[in-house]
Design brief:
With 240 residues, the chain is mainly alpha-helical. The protein is 50% helix and 5% strand.
Amino acid sequence: MASTANGRPSSTPVYIEEPGFSRWLFGSSAAGWIWLVARLWLGWEWLQAGWNKVFGGNITWKVWDWGSSAYSLTGDGNIGWVRSGTVPTEEGGQQTMQVGDAVAGFAAGALERGTAGDHPDIAYSWYVTWLEWLRDTGHTFFGPLVAIGEVVIGIALILGLFTGIMAFLGAVLNFSFVFAGSAGVNPAMIVVSMFLILAWRNAGWYGLDRYVLPKLGTPWHRGEVFGPRSSGKRSRVTTT
């Protein structure tokens, strides 16, 4: 087996030391307040986006406006997402929508706008196929899934619960919108999500992850819940 100049076998992986700032930013509880701000912003964006789709009304941080009809739970914004019903059209008429029709409409609009011309907005043929299936078949399932998923992601991020996982799921949704040719706030949300994924260890320090993660552990390290139970005798651990 070949070896390097310092005697280490050439097949042995080399672990490059990370900068101290990166270790502090992505692994120290002292940096938790930075990710708290990022979490709250991203979580609120998702909660706002999903609230209307699930409950029909809007939500605002201005609690004194919650009594207004615009922020009630009885609006029709969830028609076409989680329930069927009739909504007014721009021409002044009425349109009946079934569960998931909002997603089907989004997919149809993306296909109409994004597949024309020499430089279409939808750059991947496999995504065109996906949107066609979503428009014709999958919308009845993905309509409620997207609506409820946005609310769950938003609440979990605000509470700091499974932060890395929720940020990843949110990024998947953001990328799906971007692939369909819709930008808006999605790129900014993707950037924040990527940082939260990298900071999964301390992003929820000021949240529920601080207590949940040590209990559940990780795939490579058992937590208190799944770890071996003590036999009743305490063992002394010595260090050198």
